[in-house]
Amino acid sequence: MTSDGQSIERLREYLRTLTPEARSLLVQELERNLLRGERSAGSDLILEELRRTIRAEAQQVPRIGDAARLFFAPFEPFLIDARADHKRTGRLARVSLEPIWSWIGRDLIPAEMKALGADINRALLNDDRNRADQLIRALHDRTIARVKAIIADTGQDEKSRRRLAVQVGTSRALEDLKTIVAILSLRDVLADLARRLPNQLRVFEREQIEPIIALLDSATTQSALDVIGVHKADVFLYGLILVMSRLTAPWQLIRIATCAAGSDDAMRIAETPYAAAVTIVLGETESMIGEMRAEMKAGRQVAWMLKGVHDAARGLRTEVDLSFDSPWSRQLAAIRADVSNLLTAEIETTPGFVRRLLRPRPAKDIAPGSVLDPLDVEEAERRVEFVGTCRHYASELAVNEVTMRAHSELTHCLETGTKILLDSLRQAGDADRPFRQSQVEAAIRFCRPVFGAEYASLLAKAAEVAVHAAAPEKKPARA
Q1: Domain residues for 21?
Q2: Whole-structure pTM value
């Protein structure tokens, strides 16, 4: 580790020794210094590490805040940790906030931003939160007016859209600006809805759904919407996303659509405003597959994503009648085909990957003292666990046949291969023993998810016996 790395690690250790109260006071004082423009050496690093420690321990700390954080507070339920070019309706990528904020202050309303930003920071320094909120509201209103004008001027002109994307600094600038206008225009409606919704909905049945439908219906009172100049469809869209953020199982949002329509018939649901719930769940499922593809490419486990896609696909098929051809049924079919193709490629290659690692080799082909590459072993273990996970969700994700075949090949490979590897280890010499032992240890790791912990434990004991049998016996020294 470099000296810088050692210094950071010592800083982390020190911050972890502080009491929660001391951490809270330190965060607030550092944030106050930043608002005053006082930036001492290392303050950014200390603040970053403090926040990391606080998040890891789920500690609740009051934030002094700044103009940007307060400005984007209404967007929090609609932010996603995805790339800026995502295609999720009603969502804003967290990485897009910084370029949008810079654009507002640089190009959109620079004078207002400078004046109001200074007033907001002064109010925060004086702990006058009411004044800060009033100023942020004024900043919101000016932003709404100017962005609406820009959207109207841009229209459908492709050249204007490209120019706007360059100015704003996000790949989907026009869509992001429309989302910003809608959420800011609905900030009071959504804030009231957020207050009245349960913090978490572990169960989402008729008893919980009907009061929420009543809340959403009351939020779409036409007279109130005329004042702020938004459409009912926007209220339903962002209101439903807000409801979904409170659900333990987000796919269950579709139940609000079937309940509102009084039927699982897709055509009847499509005629209601709550049809947006089905569209949202389908979009979220598509996005999850994209995230899963990226995680698999990076070699990370995706079990929780597999479960999420499986539950959403099954819920859509069982809760909504999609037996007839419709845009929803075609979209779901495309989702299942996409995830099937993604999983099949990984599943099919796993048995061969494992066989290459566990293949018995003649002693002459083994470099003295060599062992299996630990990264290859780790990758193979992840793949074996992946195949096991896919077995639980195979039918709904259209990978039943390929998963059964891969699991059968793995079972046969491990059952027959481990015996050969143990025999080779018993007969190994000093030069090839480390390699053969690493093969047996890898086989033990692969057997655990396939045959269970007890089988792997017995195999480990057999490996110990084989190692002792292979070790040369020392002859007693002569007197």
Answers
A1: 1-63
A2: 0.78
